Amino acid sequence: MTQSANPPPIIVTDAACDLPADVIESYGIHVAPLTILFGDEAFRSGIDITPDEFYRRLSESGVHPTTSQPTAAEFADLYRQLAAENQPILSIHLSEGLSGTVNAARQAARNVPEMPVTVHDSGTLTSALGLQVLVAARAAQAGYSVEQILPLLAQTHETGGMFFTVDDLSYLHRGGRIGSVRYQLGQILHIKPIITVAKTGPKVGTYIQAGRARSMAKAVDAFVAQIVEHVGAGNKLRAISLYGDSPELAEQLNRRLAETFECVYLEMMPTAPVLGVHVGPKALGVGYAAGDWPV
Fold first, then answer.
1. What is the CATH number of domain 10-157?
2. DSSP assignment of 139-170, as one string?
3. Most distant CA atoms of the chain, gap in Å
4. How large is the average pLDDT for residues 224-232?
5. Helix axes 146-158, 126-141, angle to 10 degrees
């Protein structure tokens, strides 16, 4: 693909995007914070509270935290600040089916006519969102326009996916993500649901169950098997594994991925605190995309 005469965009995302901090900094990616509320105390995820601090507080606090998305006014303020750089803005966010964040960004874009802002629903979250954002950032750095980057995001979403599981279903239950019957059965039987985000059908952009495992270690096997089915063993893969407060299973997962695929990009990191609210400290996840970088 040839570079466009149109200028490359500034890349914006939100705090539900899991990417290593050095990647965000080196590509100049701007992150709109989501807020974690412990009662009356508010913390911007990843800014006012680190993952370590969040999980310590989660284990010690008697108050279960909640989350709050950025407002349209906060997005508009960010877009106006970036407009001074005289480049278009590409704002890539977690699935509309999981949060109102992308709609707040769309409303803000309409209120900032002085600079073209394109808002893109990634259809996913966490490190699967992160891989889309990194594709966009790499392409923007190479001089690609918004119009050239959008098909790359669609391709990354189509050829990739994400899976996660939790050791304790109570966090998903408190957040209204699973019903009380499924929660009680899962706790009694020690079932670990394998959860993904639907890419088609009536539940597109929302959580669906893709399987189950009888232990967190078995979930590693399930993740690898699902990715093999989608990508094919031995083929090129980009992936970011995620954990809550302990990295051991994510390390095991990355070893398995490195053995099974030709990994052109393989990272691991603690998931964002704003996501930890819903999955708890003993979570394991992975976002992936097939093939090499398109740019």
1. 3.40.50.10170
2. HHHTT--HHHHHHHHHHHHHTEEEEEEES-TH
3. 60
4. 98
5. 150
